[in-house]
Amino acid sequence: MKHEKYSAESRAISGGHDPSSAYNSIKPPIYQTSTFKFNTAEEGKAFFMNASGDIPLEERNASLIYTRLNHPNAITAEYRLAQLDGAEDAAFFESGMAAISTTILSFCQAGDLIVMSSPLYGGTDTFIKKHAVQMGIEWAEMERGATQKEVEQLLANHPKRDKLKMIYLETPANPTLTLVDIEMVRKLRDRLAPNAVIAVDNTYMGPLFQQPLAHGADINLYSATKYIGGHSDIIAGAASGSEKLMKLVKQKRAILGNTASPFTSWLLSRSMETIGLRMEKQARNAHKLAEYLAAHPKVKATYYLGLMPESDPQYALFKRQNNSGGAMIAFEVHGGEAEAFRFLNALELAHLAISLGSTETLVSHPYTMSSSNMDEADRLKNGITPSLIRVSVGIENIDDLVKDFDQALRTT
Ligand SMILES: *Cc1c(COP(=O)(O)O)cnc(C)c1O
Asked: Which of 176, 251, 262, 346 holds its CA 20 to 30 A away from the CA of 18?
C-alpha cells in the first residue's frame, strides 16, 4: 500500500479503503451484502482453499466469499485498528464480550488453565468463572496488585502449570485503576509457561494511551463500544496481534458467527478517524476535573492515574506503561450510598449511565450497577464501596463540567 511510509496516526485516517474500488468515494460505502460473486468456479474453489485466513492481508479484498467470514468494511476497520495498535492484524466483533469469549475459546479447551488478574470486567469474570468452567476450562486468579513474587509463585506452583494456555490481564482495572505490569508477566510467562498466550483487555486506555503489544502482550482485546466507537451508538469488540494468532481467532469467529456487521464496521472505521482528537480532549478534561475533585472538601478520595503521586509504588509502572492519565476517574464522597445517590440524581449535564469512552460524560455507581453481581466481600476488597462514583469524562466544555459537578456535590 502506498501509505506505508507515513505514520500509523495518518494511516488510520484513510487507510484500508481504496477509493478507486468504489466510484472514487473518499469514504468507504457500506457493503450491505451477505455474499460475494465468484467470477468463475475455479476462483470460488481457490477462495475456499484460502478461506481460513491464509490469504495475505493485501489480497483479502479480492477474495471475499461470505460476510460472516470477511467483508470490505471489516477489512477497512481492521486495517485501521492494526495501525493504531502496532499489530499485524486485527478482528472486529459484534461486542466486547464476543471478542473476549471468542479469543479465550480460540486458545483454551477442556482441561486447560487460565490465570487472570483481578478484578476483571464483570462480564469477563462471569464468562470465565461460570461458563468456561462448564466446558472444563479451569482458572486461577492473581490478587489485585500482586507482586512479581506472588505471580511467580502462582505460576510455578500450580499443579496444572503445563496446561496453562492463557494469561488474561486487565490493566488499568475497572473501576479503581489498579495496574498490572505486562512486562513482568511476560518475563514470567517466557520462563514458566511458554505455551500460554498473554491477552490484555486494553479497553480502559487503548488504543492510544497504552500499547500492550509493545510491552510483551500477544493479543489486545477491546470493548470497541467504548473509546474506539466513541459515541455511545454501537456495541462492538476487537482483538489485535500477530497474523498467526489472529488467524486462529478469526477461524473461531467465523464458526461462532459473531463477526462485526458491515454497518458496525463502517461506524468503527469512521470513529477511528477522530479517536486521537477525542481521547486527547477527554484526557485533558479528566485531568482538570480530577484536580477539582481532589481539592473538594466533600470528596473523600479521588482515583485518577494522571494525579498519581511519585511516592506511589505503581508510579514507575504507570510512567513506563501508559502515556496519559486517560479519561476515567473514580472518587468517593463522604458518607455512603445515600450521599452518592444524591450527587448522581442532581447532575444536569453529565449523564447517569454505565459505559465509557464516549463524547458525553457518563457517571455511574459501580457498587449497585456494573459490579453489583460481585460478592460484597469481593467488591469491598477491590475498593468498590457504596460511596464510590465512576466518571468517564467526555469532550464537553470543562468549565461546564466543573459547574455541574459543583452544584451536584452541594447536595451530598
Ligand atoms: C464494556 C467492557 C467490556 C465488555 O464489552 P461489551 O462491548 O459491552 O461487550 C469488557 N471489558 C471492559 C474493560 C469493558 O469496559
From this structure: 251
Question: Checking DSSP bridges between strand 219-223 and strand 197-201, what pairing results, if any?
Answer: parallel
Question: Is 122 close to ligand 1, i.e. is its CB under 6 Å away?
Answer: no
- The x, y and z cell numbers of residue 164, run together, are 496453562
DSSP-based three-state secondary structure for 222 = strand
Whether residue 201 has its Cβ less than 6 Å from ligand 1: yes
Q: What is the pLDDT of residues 298-329, one digit of tens each?
A: 999 999 999 999 999 999 999 999 999 999 99
Contact 93, 221 (CB under 8 A): no
Cβ–ligand 1 distance for 223 under 6 Å, the answer yes
Q: Which atom of ligand 1 is nearest to the CA of 356?
A: 15
d(CA 15, CA 82): 11
Evaluate if residue 75 carries a pLDDT over 80.
Answer: yes
State if residue 96 touches ligand 1 by the CB under 6 angstroms criterion. Answer: yes
Given CA atoms 181, 182, 183, 187 in this order, what sign does their dihedral have?
positive
225 pocket-lining for ligand 1 (C-beta < 6 Å): yes
Taking the CB of residue 348, how many other CB atoms lie within 10 A of it? 10
Strand pairing class (219-223; 237-241): antiparallel
Measured CA to CA, the distance from residue 289 to residue 394 in angstroms comes to 11
Measured at the alpha carbon of residue 262, what is the angle toward residues 122 and 47, in degrees to the nearest 5?
110
How many Å apart are CA 138 and CA 108, to the nearest integer? 9
Q: Which residue puts its alpha carbon closest to atom 1 of ligand 1?
A: 223
Task: Tell me the per-residue pLDDT of 342-362, one tens digit each, with 9 for 90 and over.
Answer: 999 999 999 999 999 999 999
Domains parsed from the chain with CATH numbers: 67-272 (3.40.640.10), 275-409 (3.90.1150.10)
Cα 152 to Cα 146: distance, rounded to the nearest angstrom: 10
Q: Find out whether the peptide bond into 56 is cis, omega within 30 degrees of 0.
A: no
- pTM comes to 0.96
Categorise residue 9: left if φ over 0, alpha if ψ from -120 to 50, beta otherwise.
alpha
Q: CB of 205 within 8 A of CB of 176?
A: no
User: Which tens digit of pLDDT belongs to each residue from 244-299?
Assistant: 999 999 999 999 999 999 999 999 999 999 999 999 999 999 999 999 999 999 99
